[in-house]
Structures are given as structure tokens and as C-alpha cells.
């Protein structure tokens, strides 16, 4: 590959950028402050309060439910304590500071299951009712699966026997989910008939989505378990979800979850083995895990690279200010990486800048910053550019907190 020294200028790069889609009525997006689905402003009855970074799994449940029901709503965001100072305005609204919360009919409600039951009572169920006996059984299964995942991931094992026992307990429950899915005539746990051959996920699918997504990522990174390879019907469930832009608008990637979970969960414990070492390396370098991370193949006229470029251009000033090597030193190597990503040619960064490029590579968050495929392309371009300068790594990603992801500089 030919190496170029003169990276494209910001003006030249901007020519490759594209405009964002309609945030209010278009496909689901983490950037919207209002969703109408073709309705008018006066039809809005719900305000959803969620975290800035879209890290909160319980927020994802409410977000997806509102999207699939097409209920007009406003979005207001605040910080999670693991990455920022909880805003005073939010504490006045929700004294506990917990997420998610909704405001409806001048009443604030917290806790995701309570919120879903309330929304269901007002707007009707998404598929079977939440308290239908079959759905209740699946909800209990989701909690048992969650508990077994926590025991395995978030507690140190003092010997191989204990590690193996925790793994087997998780595998048994994941198998139970897989077997249930195998008995349906659709990919969903609770399919909703739409009048065509296609079906949509119901409320219980919405309940399973956040933590199955995080299990898929964290167990690959910390344990070397490829959940989708081991459980074919769970894989089909994910593949069906990834066809839906409603889900993709909320979907995090393996890198994001692997590094946002430790401060939220009180730590994640690694079981070192060849698969775990390979998976974690591929995730950290930006390669990802291919179809086992997402089966979605971009079919839009706008490429993942163009989307990534547009997002960086929009926020490049705070991105550069937050970088440990500073704006003046990061300017050329960042343009080099973006030039590489958008043209396919290699551009050489200035000496001594690999640290800054890898710092940025490690702090791209999905879906907060951009969609999964766009993040993969950008991380790969940043690493491909950094390696031309040398092996120097950026500051390690913290595990006790993520104050390195403080949103405040990006809100000014």
C-alpha cells in the first residue's frame, strides 16, 4: 500500500461527509431529543430520561419499547455516576438519580419493569401482556440467566473447579433460552404478527435484549465464550434483531460493553485461555468478532466510513481538546487516520502521536458516537495509522470509573 505524507485537509475531508438523517421521524437514533413517528408535537405524552452514553441497559428496554410501539416521546439525558457528576436538575426530578425514568401525566416513574407495566396499561401491550403467565415465566428465566452471568463474570474464581461450575450454570440457563427459541415458528421469544410474513419482537424480547447483548460482548472478552456460536437459536434471534433499524439504533458493540461494564458491575474477572486472549485482542484493536458481533451488512447509500467521518467532524474540537497529546499535536495524525479510512490509502502520522491515536481508538463508544460498523472502521483506521508511528499505547482504560468519558466537554 502506498504511503502518503500529506493527509487531507479538514476542508477536503468535509467533502466526503454526509448529513444526518431525520432525527425526529427517521430511523431510530441515539442523537434524537424528540421522536414523533409522523405525529405532531402536541401528541407527545411521554418524556424518557436516560443516560448520555446509552450505557444503561434498563434505559435500552424503555427506549426500544417506545420505538416499536411508535409512541411519540421526548428524550432528556443525564450522567451516570460511573462517568460523570449527576446533574442537579435530574436529582430534583429523580432524587435517587437512578435510570431510567419517564414523566407522563406530570408523574415521574422509575424502574424499568414498573415503567413498562404503566406504559402497557396506557398504550396497550407489545405482544403478550407483561403479566401473562408465559411471559412471567420467561421474565423469571431472564433474571436467573442474569444472576448466573453476574456470578461468573463479576466474582473471582479461586480455582478451576469454581470457574467451571459457574460457567456450567450459565451454559445450562443459556441452553434453556436457546431451546425455547427453537420451538417458535419465528426468531422471537414473543413474536408479534404484523399482517405480513414478517413478525416483530414483543415485550419479553425487549426485556432480554439489553443483557443478552452485554453477555454476548463481555463473555467473549473476559471468558472466551462465543455465545452466538454455541447457541444457534440465540444467534438467529440476534440476526433477526440486527435486520431492524429500531434495534441497531440502540446497539452497543463489544468494545464499548467490555469497558463500560466493569465500573457498573463492580468489576469483571478474566478467565485467561487462548480464545479469551484472541477475542480480547481483536476487540481492543478494533477488528471486532465479525458476524458474531453483528450480522448486519450495510446496504445504505451512505457508507460506514462516511458516517464515522461525519461524526468526528461534528465533534472534532472537543475530541481534540480531550486528547492527552493536545489539539495541535493530534491535528495531523487524526486527519491522516480519517484520510486512510475514507480513501483506502495509507497516510503517515507525525512522529510521537501514536499515543493520541490509540487514546481515541479506545474511547469510541457505540451507539453514543456512531453505529457499530462505523466504529469498527474508525478504530481500524486509527490503529493502522498509529502503528506507522510506533507501539506506544494511550493511558489504560480505567476500570473503577469512566471519568475519562465525562460528557460535559461535548455539551458546551
UniProtKB/TrEMBL annotation:
The keyword Cell inner membrane does not apply. One of its GO terms (cellular component) is cytoplasm. SUPFAM superfamilies: GST C-terminal domain-like, Thioredoxin-like. InterPro entries: Glutathione-S-Trfase_C_sf, Glutathione_S-Trfase_N, GST_Omega/HSP26, Thioredoxin-like_sf. The keyword Flavoprotein does not apply. Its EC number is 2.5.1.18. GO terms for molecular function: glutathione transferase activity. Gene3D superfamilies: 1.20.1050.10, Glutaredoxin. Pfam families: GST_N_2. Residues 46-127 form the GST N-terminal domain. It is an enzyme of class 2 (transferase). Keywords: Transferase. This is Glutathione S-transferase.
Amino acid at each position: 500500500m502506498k504511503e502518503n505524507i500529506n493527509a487531507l485537509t479538514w476542508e477536503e475531508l468535509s467533502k466526503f461527509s454526509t448529513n444526518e438523517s431525520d432525527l425526529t421521524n427517521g430511523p431510530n437514533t441515539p442523537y434524537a431529543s424528540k421522536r414523533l413517528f409522523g405525529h405532531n408535537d402536541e401528541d407527545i405524552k411521554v418524556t424518557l430520561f436516560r443516560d448520555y452514553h446509552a450505557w444503561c441497559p434498563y434505559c435500552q428496554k424503555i427506549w426500544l419499547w417506545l420505538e416499536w410501539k411508535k409512541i411519540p416521546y421526548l428524550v432528556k439525558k443525564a450522567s451516570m455516576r460511573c462517568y460523570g457528576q449527576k446533574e442537579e436538575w435530574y436529582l430534583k426530578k429523580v432524587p435517587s438519580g437512578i435510570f431510567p425514568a419517564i414523566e407522563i401525566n406530570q408523574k415521574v416513574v422509575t424502574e424499568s419493569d414498573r415503567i413498562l407495566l404503566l406504559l402497557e396499561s396506557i398504550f396497550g401491550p407489545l405482544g403478550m401482556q407483561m403479566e401473562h403467565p408465559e411471559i412471567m415465566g420467561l421474565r423469571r428465566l431472564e433474571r436467573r440467566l442474569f444472576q448466573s452471568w453476574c456470578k461468573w463474570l463479576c466474582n473471582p474464581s479461586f480455582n478451576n473447579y469454581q470457574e467451571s461450575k459457574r460457567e456450567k450454570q450459565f451454559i445450562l440457563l443459556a441452553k434453556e433460552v436457546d431451546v425455547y427459541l427453537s420451538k417458535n415458528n419465528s426468531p422471537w421469544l414473543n413474536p408479534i404478527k404484523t399482517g405480513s410474513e414478517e413478525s416483530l419482537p414483543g415485550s419479553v424480547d425487549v426485556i432480554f435484549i439489553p443483557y443478552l447483548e452485554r453477555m454476548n460482548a463481555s463473555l467473549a472478552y473476559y471468558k472466551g465464550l462465543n455465545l452466538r456460536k454455541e447457541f444457534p437459536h440465540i444467534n438467529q434471534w440476534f440476526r433477526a434483531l440486527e435486520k431492524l433499524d429500531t434495534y441497531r439504533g440502540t446497539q452497543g458493540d463489544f468494545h464499548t460493553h467490555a469497558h463500560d461494564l466493569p465500573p457498573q458491575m463492580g468489576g469483571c474477572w478474566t478467565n485467561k485461555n487462548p480464545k479469551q486472549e484472541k477475542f480480547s485482542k481483536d476487540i481492543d484493536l478494533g477488528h471486532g468478532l465479525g458476524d458474531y458481533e453483528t450480522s448486519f451488512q450495510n446496504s445504505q447509500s451512505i457508507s460506514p466510513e462516511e458516517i464515522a467521518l461525519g461524526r468526528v467532524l461534528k465533534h472534532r474540537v472537543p475530541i481534540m481538546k480531550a486528547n492527552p497529546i493536545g489539539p495541535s499535536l493530534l491535528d495531523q495524525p487524526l486527519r491522516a487516520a480519517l484520510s486512510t479510512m475514507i480513501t483506502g490509502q495509507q497516510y503517515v502520522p507525525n512522529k510521537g502521536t501514536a499515543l493520541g491515536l490509540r487514546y481515541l481508538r479506545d474511547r469510541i463508544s457505540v451507539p453514543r458516537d456512531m453505529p457499530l460498523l462505523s466504529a469498527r472502521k474508525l478504530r481500524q483506521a486509527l490503529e493502522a495509522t498509529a502503528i506507522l508511528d510506533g507501539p506506544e499505547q494511550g493511558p489504560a482504560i480505567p476500570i473503577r470509573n469512566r471519568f475519562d468519558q465525562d460528557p460535559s466537554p461535548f455539551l458546551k
